[in-house]
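Input sequence (135 aa), recorded before submission:
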Amino acid sequence: MKKFKLGEIALTTIGVVFLMAGVTFAQDYQLGTSTDARVTNNSWSDFVFDDSYKLPSLEDVESYIKENKHLPGIPPEKKIKEGRLAVSYMLAIQMQKIEELTLYLINLNKENAELKSRITIIERAAKTWRRYDGK
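Predicted structure, token format:
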């Protein structure tokens, strides 16, 4: 068996894998031709886009990370080391985090556009004030 290093990329029978430190694959999972892996899961993370979904505030996420040392909804390292992790479960929660990040970026983009608009208004007002003030 080959032990891979952090960040090493392997082309396996389940696709290209970005590996974490200490991951070990048996010989049959070493470099080879990539194939399409089928993963079944009864739930997916599109609920994040539902109007009723309450996106956690970034302040709440930060507090959770400080207290628990991992993202909310993601199993901590200790749990992973204790047993096997269902790939379909991990894919689903990673997708949820990607979708949440997308919503945060959309919100930040809207805030940024609003701030740019306010800056433009303030700059115009400052120019007008300078004309009347003579400076």
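Checked by second reader. Residues 55-133 form one domain.
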